[in-house]
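Regression test case RT-17, inverse folding.

Input:
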């Protein structure tokens, strides 16, 4: 990955944590309202898409990611979804509830999000991130 890429700069940029479930709900509503063909859906560890996703794919992803996060993240808070902007997001990171690692970074390893929804072509982040097989199967089931 190029150090000066637009994607990498956005990936490393400032993000807002959707700590509370109602913030996650609000973000999903906003993303649903913005589900046009300008979004790329990227499962980290898969080959990054070169074309934006269809509106149907985006809507399906939003429904399925909500279900996955709510079912697998059995907490009274969300806290595993981050967006660059609350009201007009361009870049959203969805962390895998079953692969959170040490969120404070004390483990010394960087935990990548499981999925990224962004309005620019993503670049491959899998270099240092082996994706669990169950999440690859989930993605394949969702989009073949």
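Golden output:
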């Amino acid at each position: 990955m190029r150090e000066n890429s637009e994607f990498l700069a956005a990936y490393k940029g400032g993000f807002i944590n959707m700590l509370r479930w109602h913030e996650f709900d609000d973000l999903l509503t906003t993303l649903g309202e913005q589900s046009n063909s300008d979004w790329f859906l990227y499962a980290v560890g898969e080959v990054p898409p070169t074309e934006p996703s269809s509106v149907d794919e985006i809507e399906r992803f939003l429904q399925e990611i909500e279900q996955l996060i709510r079912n697998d993240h059995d907490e009274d808070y969300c806290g595993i979804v981050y967006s660059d902007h609350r009201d007009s997001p361009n870049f959203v990171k969805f962390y895998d509830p079953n692969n959170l690692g040490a969120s404070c970074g004390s483990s010394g390893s960087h935990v990548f999000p499981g999925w990224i929804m962004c309005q620019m072509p993503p670049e491959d982040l899998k270099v240092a991130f082996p994706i669990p097989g169950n999440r690859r199967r989930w993605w394949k089931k969702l989009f073949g």
